[in-house]
Design brief:
5 helices, globular, Alpha/beta knot, five-stranded parallel sheet, alpha/beta, 157 residues
Amino acid sequence: MQIEIWSVGKENDTFINEGVLHYFKKTKPYINISLELIQLPKKAATTDVQRTKQLEEEAILKRLQPHHYLILLDEKGKLHTSPQWAEQFQQLMNMGTKTVVLLIGGAFGVSENIMKQAKQKWSLSKLVFPHQLVRLLLAEQVYRAFSILHNSPYHHS
């Protein structure tokens, strides 16, 4: 199985990118993980929320393949503990899932169509975070989940 983090939005600041890469490097012995930024062309920028969500939907659906297992990160999604994240990933591996896509939607959320495409909806917190920080938190939580699955001392229960 491999994990792809898809995030709508701009490039990471240097310190965020360094943190994401740090956790990706630590995760590599367990599983392949990557980050794909979904950026709309500047000429597509609009203040129309529905139009923005539609453009983001088109960009997401262009990438989404039948072998992808889409998990949407959403503030209204299901809250899991870190051991529960590990359990979820183990179940997906047991099911023979090829690629898990963890999607961080745009500033206005995602379209209803993308909501329906998601197999699961997870939440990192009841708090709202900037997208760049979510990327870093997500990279760390994936590392934590796989360190739990491999009995690494990183996670203390």
